[in-house]
Amino acid sequence: MTDLLTTLEDYRWRFTEAAAAYDGSTSRATDLEEVTASYSRLVTDVRHEADFLRLVREDAPGTAQLVHDLRARSARCAGVVEKYRALRLLDDQDHLSGYFDNVEGCIDEEFGALAPTAGASVLLVGSGSFPMTLVNAARRTGASVAGIDIDAEAVELGRRVVARLAATAPAPLEVALEALPLEELPFTKGATHVVFSSTVAVKYDLLDALHPLTRDDVVVAMRFGDGLKSLFNYPMRDVDPDRWRLVDTIRRPDQVFDIALYEKPGAPS
Q1: Which residues span the domain enclosing 85?
Q2: How many CA atoms lie within 13 A of 185 on its CB side?
């Protein structure tokens, strides 16, 4: 357990340094990508789970702050890694040929039997700089898609990435990205499917606020991480049963986040 504590304290320092080094270029990209990849392996390694839970349970001085800092700083760094990836693509440092064959964040896996089809409207909260979940949904299903993010730089990079990918897409690709609150986005009221990024700190507050803004049959995929994975994600929380009903939990042992699916009580089945 002492070894894990030392390792986590080291990651806190490395994430702090790496995030501070971001200057709008890719000059320090490799360092942060290596740290993030290594951290991802740690939080998905079940051999550390018992030590982490014991660490939290014993609540030694500074432990709660360490967990809070790691969650916040790793989330910040995940956003910077996306920016590096976007910048590389826009600078022609990445080849485009594989993007449509190997798009990440399969929308079918996120929603299971409730996955969107043609005619659906998918909203991603915390869309970041490289919104491949939305690109995937648009291409695979023909759904209308939109994303929001509080990071204006990420939104602008995301728009440029979509435009770059659209130039070589086999069919028209339309992805709307905005730096707007949920309540100010016209797309919200018609969304059939909503995805929350796991690194959005206030995602459950936003879920509560989303209830009166959305259709009765909306389906919400909440990315989250509990236990060891909570070091890289904001965890699952209880919801108001009068507003939302948990209908499924999709566990993905080899992935950094899991997925909770919510519907409104009384939603048509």
Answers
A1: 2-90
A2: 24
